[in-house]
Amino acid sequence: MIDLMNFCAYNELMDENCFKEKGLEFASKGSVTLSARRIVFNKIPIDNGGQEGLGLCNIEPTPNNAGMMDAMLYEMERKFLPRLDEIHRHPDEYVRKVMQLTRHDFTLVNGYVYMAHPDRTQPGLKPNKATMKIFRGCRKHMQMLYFSRLMNTRTID
What we know:
By secondary structure, this protein is of the alpha+beta class. It is built from four helices and seven strands; from the N terminus they run βαββββαββαα. The strands form two sheets. A five-stranded antiparallel β-sheet has the order 1-5-2-6-7, with helices on one face.
């Protein structure tokens, strides 16, 4: 019997092509929301590629515990967990947590979510246009209001 797990992607791994390029495979996928969370670009990159002020995707609680964010839920074999840890540089850069997620049919499911260590974040960072282009390709998996707000994020370039 195959041991399956759920992984919640809110960054470039939402894009199926990026997901597969990282050597990952999934059995199924679908959209989910995380309540009282928001996407931010405050993760300090290990290498900013010469782009001053570059911030990577991260999630954090909303200030008033209201709202929600969209993400992609992948059901995948547990054997890929070490690869996910490697991609996210867990435990040095990101913390892996099990969180409760809401599918769009309102059923609840638990899944692994990676969040940046607080000491690896910095306010005022911004994504680059390449990151936003990846998100544009994921729009069919996001609610329109969420997608339009995300696309209004200022970039560094």
